[in-house]
Amino acid sequence: MIVQKFGGTSLEDAPALERACAIVAEARQDCPVVVVSAIGDTTDRLIEALEAAAAGEEARALSGLSRLQRDTERVLREFFAGGSAAVEAELVPFFDELARMARAVAVLHSVPAAGRDHFLAHGEMAAGIVVARALAARSLPAVGLDSREIVATDDRFGRAQPDLQETEKRVRQRIAPLCERGEIPVAAGYIGSSHAGATTTLGRGGSDYTAALLGAALEATAVQIWTDVDGMMTADPRVVPGARPIPTISFDEASELAYFGARVLHPLTLAPAIEKGIPVRVKNSRRPDFPGTEILASAESGEDPVRSIAFKKGIATVDVVTSRMLMASGFLRTLFDVFARWDTAVDMVSTSEISVSVTMDDLSRLPEIRRDLERLAQVDVARDRAIVCLVGQDLKFTPGLAARMFRTIEDVNVLMISQGASRRNVSFVVEEREVEPVVRRLHAEFFE
Fold first, then answer.
1. Per CATH, the architecture of 2-228 is what?
2. What is the mean pLDDT of the chain?
């Protein structure tokens, strides 16, 4: 049994749907379980409509939803060659509910976190119907599933955490029997439901996580992530045209890359696979014969210790300065309790005798965090920063690596440096406007 997850770009139009169907058909003997993201840029467009509604711009929100419905219907008509009426009718209630919710949000000028999750989940739910019907139209016995009845989570809306034990029980009850009968389950990624029955989402990119959760529960032989690139790359090819695929990479290295901005995988995707020893393969749906990247428990690093260079934009640095740190037992715990209180993670940490510097990419609670920190110390916040991260095996024990790295960017102002205790990453912070040239220069130094 394998799990095949198709990202939005792998479903974005009729030819993409045709390719996805062919990929599933090719794997029929492996008992595939299909997980789907929202089609194309649907999620971005839903966010745009929701934000317009929250700003009181009802007409703009409804117009955006109408365009999205028309674009979806056009894809269906192209794929089903005139026989799309039944599928279009199945999607009408989704768009009607989205319009109703947008009108309500426009009146209230706000949307609660639970309402936001319910709104955004419609993209994946609609994609599940479309893909199940597309597979059936190509004579594949697909069965659409409501992932809210399968993935159990807590109620942290926007980034819900799965209840692994309950989810595993539901997967084995609902999905395993379908596979045993030779049917092909199609589940929407990204979404689940709380124990109270409210729709939840796993965070952007959460469809990858869904695939790994199902794979672990089913003890699949592999999890395939089908996307629009040739696997995990030595850098983002949109920034570095000469970036090349990495044939094999370790779970640990891939996790570092995912966390520090490589968009091919959701950062939490690999955890269930690591625990069950399930290999994950990232492949290009436009080039299905290309081997892509296989992610294994361990992988040889080759001659060069650096495997890839990732970066993350939209970062803020928070500098906390106080002489109270001197000889003060428990000060760091007090400081990080502030971030925990507002459910906000930090990426990098650097300390000195009288200061602590951290980076964060979730800035939604930054005003509250700053207010609480200012009760403890002097606080300086700088936005428009970016993290650059070099990932590889045993970087900590590679003589001359830091000298080689900083010599390459000697004219760039490095604002913060951190070497991970994991030994697999060296990270630093620069101004966001400088990050892409920095990544290109480092890639040229280590890979070209």
1. 3-Layer(aba) Sandwich (3.40)
2. 90
